[in-house]
């Protein structure tokens, strides 16, 4: 966990975040959530976030908060911590769908809902907002024209929940199946930016080290030359060896002990001359943290001195048993004069070692990035400040079927055939030059083929100067095609090609909403094939399937463009006919449909007569909710079946006085 980055997000989007991290196998990132009480004063949310951050302290290498500026109070958070970052959007819905689309729906008075919020709507509306049903309906009626669910597919109960919420606040709803693709790209872009920040931080560290080394080398070059072999930068051990050799030459001591101290004043190494000599005095000085720059040894014929540079302790040197002890004061003064240069030389050696390590690390990172650029499955362009192509990878050339010589030096606008007006080109370039990342989902035509492309562009900043741009092209044509296929599978009956029951329920709810808002009336037909079970039992299911396909084709042929036909069960069909309520017109249409369905159906060497029964209910006369309207049309249809008239029937209130038990039981036995 220590090496992982914790991504912190509102609990309303936690399952989506976890699904993306699991799907993309982003094992270096860990999802965690906080409770955001929507529309409540935000000091509470900020306090929750601060508690989570404190709990996560030293648990993860970095914590990154994803939030919206409109929902989460982050003003009091310390955003300058190196192990903490924030990605903010204007609204949390921008995680799931483009901001422009969100604004379009908001401008139309939509109340946009995420699946996570919807899953706990009772908690927010009743427990947090303290709205009873009358208050909720009054509030939503005044401010909201329609509920809009951004369906990510993560919550299985979303349709049932939106129906409950819609009934509670008395507002119509629409379901927009957004899926996880946009959210996945949003998360992957944040992760990519985090990785880029890590690379840039290492580059900045290398730059500072280089500047520091150059400054020190410049300031002390003349002094370092005085040391002969020490004038050239070398490893720390070699520097210390030369220093000790110089001390031997100057002072002719009987004992020299050097204690090398690293970060946090921890012992790096202990060097003794001669080997095996008593080290206890120096260790005692180290443990007791010697006061001042120096002190005399116990014997009185030597001294102990700190070696430091710019306030940082680098080591402690003990020189004892000097041959001419009477000159110890002179020796000490000489050593104090040059000890600062010793500290400089050792410090420079350490910095140089770090510089070499950093340089090697950056070289590895550069090689990795070059391989990533070269082998990435996404097309990548590197542009200069003037937006001309400086480099291009193989994937881009393959994607747009071009050659490198035809791309280098070309302006990106000319290369992609972008129009200033239609593609908002000037706006995107302005954002890039301001240091912002630009994300575009668009269509690009190349070699007579139009592609759906996701474009990610971001500036290249070196030493606080804009030097160019990277533009990444991801071909999302397959994803777009799959989305179309998924919608088709979700709402279409595979046998007949008609809309299925799920589509029927959604369109029936939509028709009822239109009635509530605009008083648009409509008629519901429920049609059932007569004695279909007998057909299956006698001729087999393959013939039964042929019958269903034939009936579906006949029904489609009877429909206007504004009408909708559905297969809602085994041999049960439904028609929603808008702007139709006059009894004589409805009767004529019902007769025409049933007449079209009456036919002789050939099977091998025999035939059987095909017919159907129909029940009719009209909104608003027979009901203004889905369950009532469907139930009454169904009762009317089974009434026809019971009479075996093979015709149609409007729902009549007298049916309520009759027992429907016989009808239902007969339907189960398929007597009709």
From TrEMBL:
<dbReference type="InterPro" id="IPR013656">
    <property type="entry name" value="PAS_4"/>
</dbReference>
<dbReference type="InterPro" id="IPR035965">
    <property type="entry name" value="PAS-like_dom_sf"/>
</dbReference>
<dbReference type="InterPro" id="IPR029787">
    <property type="entry name" value="Nucleotide_cyclase"/>
</dbReference>
<protein>
    <submittedName>
        <fullName>Diguanylate cyclase</fullName>
    </submittedName>
</protein>
<dbReference type="InterPro" id="IPR000014">
    <property type="entry name" value="PAS"/>
</dbReference>
<dbReference type="Pfam" id="PF00990">
    <property type="entry name" value="GGDEF"/>
</dbReference>
<dbReference type="InterPro" id="IPR000160">
    <property type="entry name" value="GGDEF_dom"/>
</dbReference>
<dbReference type="InterPro" id="IPR012437">
    <property type="entry name" value="DUF1638"/>
</dbReference>
<dbReference type="InterPro" id="IPR052155">
    <property type="entry name" value="Biofilm_reg_signaling"/>
</dbReference>
<dbReference type="Pfam" id="PF07796">
    <property type="entry name" value="DUF1638"/>
</dbReference>
<dbReference type="InterPro" id="IPR043128">
    <property type="entry name" value="Rev_trsase/Diguanyl_cyclase"/>
</dbReference>
<dbReference type="Pfam" id="PF08448">
    <property type="entry name" value="PAS_4"/>
</dbReference>
<feature type="domain" description="GGDEF">
    <location>
        <begin position="520"/>
        <end position="653"/>
    </location>
</feature>
């Amino acid at each position: 966990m220590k090496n992982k980055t914790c991504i912190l997000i509102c609990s309303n989007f936690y399952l989506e975040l976890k699904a993306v991290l699991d799907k993309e196998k982003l094992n270096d990132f860990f999802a965690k959530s906080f409770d955001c009480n929507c529309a409540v004063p935000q000091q509470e949310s900020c306090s929750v976030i601060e508690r989570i951050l404190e709990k996560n302290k030293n648990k993860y290498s970095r914590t990154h908060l994803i939030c919206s500026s409109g929902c989460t109070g982050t003003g009091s958070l310390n955003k300058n911590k190196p192990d903490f970052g924030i990605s903010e959007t204007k609204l949390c819905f921008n995680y799931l769908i483009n901001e422009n689309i969100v604004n379009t729906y908001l401008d139309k008075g939509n109340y946009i809902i995420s699946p996570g919020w919807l899953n706990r709507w009772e908690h927010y509306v009743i427990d947090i907002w303290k709205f009873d049903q009358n208050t909720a309906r009054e509030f939503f009626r005044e401010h909201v024209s329609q509920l809009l669910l951004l369906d990510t597919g993560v919550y299985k109960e979303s349709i049932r929940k939106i129906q409950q919420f819609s009934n509670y606040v008395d507002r119509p709803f629409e379901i927009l199946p957004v899926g996880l693709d946009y959210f996945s790209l949003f998360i992957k872009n944040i992760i990519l930016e985090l990785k880029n920040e890590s690379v840039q931080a290492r580059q900045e560290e290398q730059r500072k080290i280089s500047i520091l080394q150059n400054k020190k080398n410049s300031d002390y070059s003349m002094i370092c030359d005085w040391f002969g072999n020490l004038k050239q930068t070398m490893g720390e051990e070699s520097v210390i060896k030369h220093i000790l050799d110089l001390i031997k030459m100057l002072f002719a001591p009987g004992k020299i002990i050097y204690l090398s101290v690293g970060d946090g004043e921890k012992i790096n190494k202990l060097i003794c001359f001669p080997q095996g000599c008593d080290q206890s005095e120096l260790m005692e000085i180290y443990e007791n943290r010697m006061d001042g720059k120096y002190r005399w040894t116990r014997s009185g014929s030597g001294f102990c001195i700190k070696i430091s540079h710019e306030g940082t302790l680098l080591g402690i040197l003990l020189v004892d048993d000097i041959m001419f002890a009477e000159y110890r004061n002179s020796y000490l003064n000489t050593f104090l004069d040059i000890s600062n240069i010793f500290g400089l030389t050792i410090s420079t050696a350490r910095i140089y070692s770090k510089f070499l390590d950093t340089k090697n690390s950056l070289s590895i990172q550069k090689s990795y990035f070059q391989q990533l650029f070269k082998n990435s499955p996404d097309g990548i362009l590197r542009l200069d400040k003037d937006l001309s192509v400086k480099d291009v990878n193989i994937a881009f050339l393959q994607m747009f079927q071009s050659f490198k010589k035809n791309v280098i030096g070309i302006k990106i606008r000319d290369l992609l055939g972008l129009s200033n007006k239609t593609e908002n080109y000037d706006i995107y370039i302005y954002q890039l030059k301001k240091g912002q990342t630009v994300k575009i989902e668009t269509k690009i035509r190349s070699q007579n083929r139009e592609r759906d492309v996701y474009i990610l562009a971001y500036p290249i900043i070196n030493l606080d100067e804009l030097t160019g741009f990277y533009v990444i092209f991801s071909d999302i044509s397959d994803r777009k095609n799959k989305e179309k296929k998924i919608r088709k599978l979700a709402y279409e009956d595979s046998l007949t090609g008609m809309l299925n029951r799920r589509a029927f329920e959604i369109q029936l709810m939509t028709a009822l909403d239109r009635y509530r808002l605009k008083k648009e009336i409509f008629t519901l037909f429920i049609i059932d094939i007569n004695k279909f079970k007998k057909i299956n039992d006698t001729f087999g299911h393959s013939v039964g399937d042929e019958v269903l396909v034939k009936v579906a084709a006949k029904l489609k042929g009877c429909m206007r463009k504004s009408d909708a036909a559905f297969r809602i069960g085994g041999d049960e069909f439904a028609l929603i006919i808008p702007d139709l309520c006059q009894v004589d017109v409805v009767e004529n249409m019902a007769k025409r449909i049933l007449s079209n369905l009456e036919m002789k159906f050939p099977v091998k060497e025999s035939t059987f007569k095909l017919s159907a029964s129909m029940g009719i209910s009209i909104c608003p006369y027979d009901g203004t909710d889905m369950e009532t309207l469907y139930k009454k049309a169904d009762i009317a249809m089974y009434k026809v079946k019971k009479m075996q008239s093979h015709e149609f029937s409007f729902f009549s209130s007298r049916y309520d006085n009759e027992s429907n038990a016989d009808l239902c039981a007969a339907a189960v036995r398929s007597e009709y």
